[in-house]
Amino acid sequence: MHKKRLIAAVVAGMLAAPAAFAQITISGTVKDGFEMYKLGAGKAAAPAASYHYEPRVSDQSSRIIFSGTQDLGGGTRAWFQLDSRFQSDVGGSTQTNTGATTGINLWAGGNTGVGLAGAWGKLTIGRWDLHYLEFIPIEFGYAGSLQDLLGAGPMSQVNGSVIANGTRTPNVIMWDSANMGGITARVAYSTAFSTNLTGVSSDEGSGKGGAGSSGGALTAAVRYSRGPLGLGASYWTAKPETATSNAIGEQRSLRLWGGYTFPMGLKVGLGFDNSQRRVAAPPPAPPAANEGDAMTKRNAFMVPITYNFGSHTAYLTLVKVGKLSGPNAGGPTDSTDATAFALGWEYALSKLATVGVFYAKIDNKTNAAYQFFSTSANGATNPAAGESAAQLYTGFSYRF
After folding, report:
1. Helix (H, G, I), strand (E, B) or coil at 96
2. Which 3 state secondary structure label does DSSP give 14?
3. pLDDT-derived band of residue 95, with 50, 70 and 90 as boundaries?
4. Do the Cβ atoms of 152 and 166 come closer than 8 Å?
5. What is the DSSP string of 249-306?
6. For the chain, first and last CA: distance in Å?
7. Whole-prediction pTM value?
8. CA 81, CA 77: separation in Å to the nearest integer?
9. Nearest to 314 by CA among 323, 304, 324, 322
10. CA 52 – CA 196 distance, rounded (Å)
């Protein structure tokens, strides 16, 4: 990505060493488009009387990023990044199409942190995207909508309940390794992984009485990228802040992916995700039949295919989400599976500007309620159980 660089020279008398300069970089993306979004009756047991198109101009996570580094000597440098999302469709940084902010577009609501870096890797303290975007290396496109990212949508949900927030995780301490012959690793811990972004607060427990302060999230990932081959694995485990063990809302998730790019420009990938979420308190010991440990589970697979020819790139992603297993708080597990696909084309007008057309659809079985990624940002109506959802999107992206 091309970056506009501004060099800030600090007054020599205020520095211990006159040669110590802070380098500030401004970068970002403006990404917007026109969409036609529509729900359908699908296999809903009680469909709506009618369904209508929701036409809108929708921003797709436009952002401006301020970052900086300073050499501390001995191969170590200090760094910071302030990533702010804004809405180029309606203006501002906190408004959504349907009401109060979800926190997606707050000032510093993107990947924001500060830390140290060197030959040993990079230390980050702040808020960051963790786990749910690990399929990006096999499904990324410049001009498509956020909803086209099926790896961050139905592949990151347990029947509509989001795993790993579906946005930045707050209160993070993270280490990223240096690149070791194509291998990189990440370990991150969040003291409180969920947050009330509307009020810009998070519950980390009082540490006394029944409020508890034993929650948090831990994630680890390892990736390999060299030549035409890419591989990756990521694990996520999280517990809400509560004094209760085995709390409702506990999450576990494992995802594996691989991709190979052939010489003619064809790239084929495969992704697998096993996610679990506790939707009810565990049963008394010994557990009743089929109740297990009260974790509701599902497996999901995706096959993303990309073909690049000159300035053109074509995309096809296929997703199959399996049925739920486990107690599901007494709810049904039959007909809780879903399928989805995304089809798209984009054209690079330059190294910085891209235009494209994409179509994506989710088909839920009768008791499934999977939805697209980040519908709260564009104001789309999420499907109820059994309903389908589809989006036709034409968009433009400019990176600076």
Report:
1. coil
2. helix
3. very low
4. yes
5. T-EEEEEEEEEEE-TTSEEEEEEEEEEEEE-SPPPPSSPPTT-TTSEEEEEEEEEEEE
6. 7
7. 0.87
8. 13
9. 304
10. 32
Contacts of 271 (CB under 8 A, 6+ apart): 135, 138, 139, 151, 155, 255, 256, 257, 301, 302, 303, 304
Report angle CA 198, 200, 205 to the nearest 5 degrees. Answer: 115
Q: Note the maximum CA span of the chain.
A: 74
Compute, in degrees rounded to 10, the torsion defined by CA atoms 95, 101, 107, 112.
-140
Interior angle at CA 382, CA 281 and CA 372, nearest 5: 90
Backbone angles phi, psi at 280, to 5 degrees: -155, 160
108: pLDDT confidence band, cut at 50, 70 and 90? confident
Question: Would you give the DSSP letter of residue 210?
Answer: T
* Residue (of 71, 68, 72, 70) closest to 80 by Cα position: 68
What are 118's two structure tokens?
Answer: 């060197």
CA gap 368, 366 in Å, rounded: 6
- Both tokens of 63, joined, read 């952002």
Tokens of 168: 């930045």
Asked whether the beta carbons of 215 and 193 are under 8 A apart, the reply is: yes
Pair of tokens at residue 13: 């008398």
Look at residue 201 and give its three-state secondary structure.
Answer: strand
- Residue 397, classed as helix, strand or coil, is strand
How does DSSP classify residue 134?
A: T
Supply φ then ψ for residue 78, to 5 degrees: -90, 150
pLDDT, tens digit (0-9, with 9 covering 90-100), for 109-153: 899 999 999 999 999 999 999 999 999 999 999 999 999 999 999
